[in-house]
Design brief:
With 579 residues, this protein is an alpha/beta fold. The protein folds into 4 domains: 76 residues, no CATH class; 167 residues, no CATH class; 213 residues, Rossmann fold; 71 residues. It has 17 helices and 17 strands. A 6-stranded mixed beta sheet has the order 2-5-6-4-1-3, with no helix packed on it. Strands 10-13-16-9-17 form a 5-stranded parallel beta sheet. Helix 16 packs across helix 17.
């Protein structure tokens, strides 16, 4: 009588199956042979081909392999007779890991081993500029988790009642609102979902030029992935455009969310990635470093980039200096409600005509220099009709994205030159508040209907307007004074690569202020306060931010007296223009 495998042995088999090299570029011979044996029953021809390719990879002469079976017979012999491949008594462990549909029966609950996995809906990074794929490695794969966190969890155990990732803030929302399907309300909601999908009103990023997908993550219980993070996923890709829906009840979504997710995310339009490896990406990961990195090289980069900004701004070197500071800013700390490090900029004095020339050149330069950038044409109609903040739609149990739901490090240009006087409705007033909160607090409000939740942001905001913007109040307001026609000199790819590295790397430098310089700064602030009583803590905080940005723009990690004096001179010239 055949001895039945113990539970420990079966568990070990299951674990070994879950570690099969399903996604490798160059597998080792031992790993490849183990993978082949598992596939003997389901894909025998694939085993034959893989064994042949493995033999060639190990140096065998392909012209002489026709006289042998290159190990195929041994593979099948081990599988059939040594590994009980012919056995049908259920003693052989199987795994459904990294699969969309359960291939093997899960009826025997006593022998079943349950694993957890998380489900994410990921979209391309909003505003990702086209040059990224040309200048960095593997940047066609990062995805930004900008969608509803209410589908961020997926537990294989069917009887589980946990619907959301407990680490996400939306978990508390479940305790306040019932599921759609309770008390038999599912069918009506399902019909609304189907109608929405058919009529094309669903905001799912399903356009053919965008690659959105469902990502299934395994074995990462302590993953700190958050909404709007940028991640790179490497894993098993499954996509069948001809498949309309899973009708056999084996889809992972069949028992989830009233089956509405299958309608919202059909496998014919939204592919799946079973993640094997993931890593969080920062803006620096999209930039290639230059060959040299010395203080002289950094100063030359600064001078050449400042000259470039000056030319596209019609010779306005003061505005170019403030623009350079603005593009190097980022939120590096938070003290209560203050986002330390931000420096939004409002260039005034534009007309519709000058915005079409200088503004267009400026926006083109930003797109060529920064990985992620967006532009918002602000009008009364846009404010009254657009969705700037994410909002939960309970009809389809989804969080609908908003225009201000952006990845960290994104640059946003707000063009107000087309904004004419007009009344704002309730939507417009709320959108104006969202813009103000983004600029002042670097936060975006998410509307969950039963409550509102503020999410931290880190977005550089540039405002182009005729007069000082009231809807988007910036940290710095400077009138734009061009002295010559806009000039767009030819820029080489080498210069662009160097400037991209410069802006991204310098902004992340650690920085400190020496005690001697700090005493000078305090004395200057006291003198400025005595001369101008309207100055307050916000102004002094902005000066310190400008001083830090001026210092790191030279590649320095500590502020010098000369750099502080440069900031004070720039501030004096700015106030002269404002008068």
């Amino acid at each position: 009588m055949k001895k039945r495998a113990t539970k420990r042995e079966r568990r070990l088999r299951s674990l070994s199956l879950s570690r099969l090299p399903l996604f490798l570029c160059v597998p080792s011979p031992s790993e490849a042979m183990g993978a082949l044996a598992v596939d003997c029953a389901n894909n025998p021809l694939g085993v034959v081909r893989s064994a042949f390719e493995d033999a060639v990879a190990r140096g065998r002469d392909p012209t002489t392999l026709g006289n042998t079976d290159w190990g195929v017979a041994d593979i099948f012999r081990r599988f059939l007779f040594e590994q009980d491949g012919l056995s049908k008594d259920g003693s052989t462990w199987r795994t459904n890991k990294f699969m969309d549909v359960s291939t093997f029966s899960m009826a025997s609950a006593s022998d079943m081993q349950i694993w957890d996995r998380r489900l994410l809906y990921c979209v391309p990074i909003p505003g990702q500029n086209t040059w990224i794929g040309e200048s960095s490695l593997r940047t066609d794969s990062p995805m930004c988790c900008t969608r509803d966190p209410s589908i961020q969890r997926e537990k294989r155990e069917r009887e589980s009642n946990s619907d959301f990732d407990p680490s996400h803030p939306e978990t508390s929302e479940i305790s306040r609102a019932k599921k759609l399907c309770e008390n038999g309300s599912c069918s009506q909601q399902q019909q609304q979902v189907k109608d929405t999908a058919v009529n094309g009103r669903m905001d799912l990023h399903l356009e053919t030029n965008l690659f959105s997908c469902l990502v299934k993550m395994y074995d990462e219980p302590n993953c700190d992935l958050k909404l709007n993070d940028v991640y790179e996923f490497i894993g098993i890709f499954t996509f069948n455009p001809e498949l309309v829906s899973y009708t056999n009840g084996n889809d992972d979504f069949a028992d989830d969310l009233c089956e509405s997710v299958s309608t919202q995310f059909p496998p014919s339009k939204v592919p799946r990635i079973h993640c094997i490896i993931s890593r969080k990406l920062m803006v620096q990961d999209f930039i290639s470093a230059p060959i040299e990195n010395t203080s002289n090289v950094i100063r030359n980069m600064r001078d050449s980039l400042l000259g470039y900004f000056t030319s596209i701004l019609g010779g306005d070197r003061l505005s170019a200096n403030f623009l350079l500071m603005h593009l190097m800013s980022q939120v590096h700390a938070r003290v209560e409600s203050v986002a330390v490090g931000k420096l939004s900029l409002n260039l005034t004095g534009f007309t519709k005509e000058s915005a079409d020339i200088f503004g267009s050149n400026l926006q083109s330069a930003i797109q060529n220099l920064l990985p992620f950038s967006q532009i918002m044409q602000l009008t009364v109609e846009y404010l009254n009709t657009s969705s700037l903040g994410p909002k939960k739609n309970y009809n389809i149990n989804r969080l609908m994205t908003g225009s201000l739901q952006l990845a960290r490090g994104t640059h946003l240009t707000i063009d107000e030159t087309g904004l004419l006087p007009g009344p704002l409705n309730a939507v417009g007033v709320n959108n104006a508040k969202l813009l103000k909160d983004l600029l002042e607090l670097q936060k975006v409000e998410y509307d969950f209907q039963y409550y509102k939740l503020e999410m931290e942001a880190d977005v550089q905001v540039l405002v182009i307007s005729t007069g000082k913007s009231n809807i988007a109040p910036a940290d710095l307001v400077i009138p734009f004074h061009p002295t010559e026609a806009a000039s767009c000199s030819n820029v080489t790819s080498t210069e662009l690569q160097a400037w991209r590295w410069y802006l991204t790397t310098m902004r992340s430098l650690p920085h400190a202020i020496d005690p001697a310089i700090q005493k000078t700064i305090e004395d200057d602030m006291v003198a400025a306060r005595q001369a101008e009583r309207t100055l307050g803590p916000d102004d002094f905080s902005r000066w310190l931010t400008m001083a830090r940005l001026m210092s790191i723009s030279y590649g320095e990690r500590s502020l010098t007296l000369e750099q502080w004096q440069m900031v004070m001179e720039m501030e004096r010239l700015r106030k002269e223009r404002l008068q």
